[in-house]
Amino acid sequence: MRRFLFNTDTLSYVEQRRSKWRRALESVAIAVAAVAVVAAFCWLWFVVLGKDLPKTAILKRRNDLWQARMGVIRHKLDVYDQTLSGIEARDNQVYRSIFALDAIADTVRSDTASNRMQALDFRLDAFQRRIDLQMSALGEVALVAKKAGDMVSCIPAVPPVLPKKGTYHLSSPFGTREDPVYGGMARHTGQDIASHIGNPVYATGDGVVEKVDFKYSGYGNEVVIDHGFGYKTRYAHLNTIDVGVGQNLHRGDKIGEVGKSGKSTGPHLHYEVLYKGNPVNPMSYMDMDMPVDEYKAMIGKRRMENQTGSRPSAASLGARQKRQGTNGRQ
Predict the structure, then answer these.
(1) How far apart are CA 325 and CA 34, in angstroms?
(2) Which of 19-33, 106-120, 125-139, 205-219 has the lowest mean pLDDT?
(3) Which of 64, 160, 185, 238 lies at a CB distance of 3.0 to 4.6 Å from 221, suitable for a disulfide?
(4) pLDDT on residue 314
(5) Half-sphere exposure (Cβ direction) of 93: Cα atoms closer than 13 Å
(6) What are the start-end ranges of the E strands in 94-172?
């Protein structure tokens, strides 16, 4: 660019001529100054004020957006976790308990994630496994629930002998007692019902005969009935047994007679109720004040059904089982 200076002597403008080197030096100086200004601005903007580069700022905004979305997902997973945990607890403590099913074990594994996204992925997988397991568990409950009507008749809910006053006596109760034969304190896992030899003993609920044992020690002549739904009953020290292993029984069917076989100090029935393999107090499952007429009606109904039914004779099955036991001892 051309430059002019005012000459006071001639009172006119005179063009100022510069050398090429000076013009070049001025250009370099201007460029250096511009670079310095830009560098100073960048230092002030990024170092002093801590501002981000445009691309970095865009990436940060995107990251914040994804973090917000992941936060929403984590919150929803927390809500779903609480809901699913409630369903699992209700299934184990209520549904499965009612139908005597084993509780579902916690199989959710704990994975170590290297970042938040991987942690969410592991958590979603864990939820899927828990949902699949719970669907299977509820399906099992549904199958058992279809048979819930049978549960009422299967639970041992009546006395094993006719509850007529004067024909029986509640002797040794469930719990800790002094052993009547060996002495010393011992746990008594059933309820003893003293009665005369030959007093009939009846099944207290529907079930299948699981065990029939004839022996001279311990429980003596013994019958165990599996009622399903976690329940079993034991009838011990019998004089005679009228049922056989595998026989289907209904509440009110005669299974034998009171005796004093095995370790016994007198004629009585040792009656046990087991729930999930553990002895429980039989008095919690029967009403000894049950009307005698009602009990006799139950027995009479079963006697008539057995006479008109097509199942094998209880007496013949029992006799056959007893013969097998006798042959085994010879």
Answers:
(1) 114
(2) 106-120
(3) 238
(4) 45
(5) 6
(6) 168-170
Count of other CB atoms within 10 angstroms of residue 164: 11
Q: Return d(Cα 282, Cα 236) in angstroms, integer.
A: 14
Strand, helix or coil at 35? helix
Torsion angle of the four alpha carbons 11, 13, 17, 23, in this order, in degrees rounded to the nearest 10: 120
Least trusted range by pLDDT, from 24-33, 137-146, 202-211: 137-146
Closest CA to 260 of 219, 305, 213: 219
Mean local confidence (pLDDT), 245-258: 95
DSSP string, 254-323: EEEEEB--SS-SSSEEEEEEEETTEEE-GGGG--TTS-HHHHHHHHHHHHHHHHHS-SPPHHHHHHHHHH
pLDDT in tens, 77-96: 888 888 888 888 877 776 67
Q: Which single residue is written with the structure tokens 């917000």?
A: 68
Output phi, psi for 226, to 5 deg.
-95, 115
Structure tokens at 21: 């080197």
Helices (H) and strands (E) in the chain, counts: 7, 14
Please work out, in degrees rounded to the nearest 5, the angle formed at the alpha carbon of residue 156 by the alpha carbons of 104 and 325: 100
CA distance 179 to 193: 16
Contact 301, 252 (CB under 8 A): yes
pTM of the model: 0.58
Q: According to the per-residue pLDDT averaged within each range, which of 43-47, 90-94, 222-226, 320-324 is highest?
A: 222-226
Q: Do the beta carbons of residue 268 and residue 256 sit within 8 Å?
A: no
How much is the average pLDDT of 247-258? 96
User: Could you give the CA distance from residue 221 to residue 262 in angstroms, rounded to a whole number?
Assistant: 7
170-178, long-range: CB < 8 A, 24+ apart:
170/194, 170/288, 171/268, 173/283, 174/279, 174/280, 174/281, 174/282, 174/283, 175/281
Q: How far apart are the C-alpha atoms of 242 and 262, rounded to whole Å?
A: 18
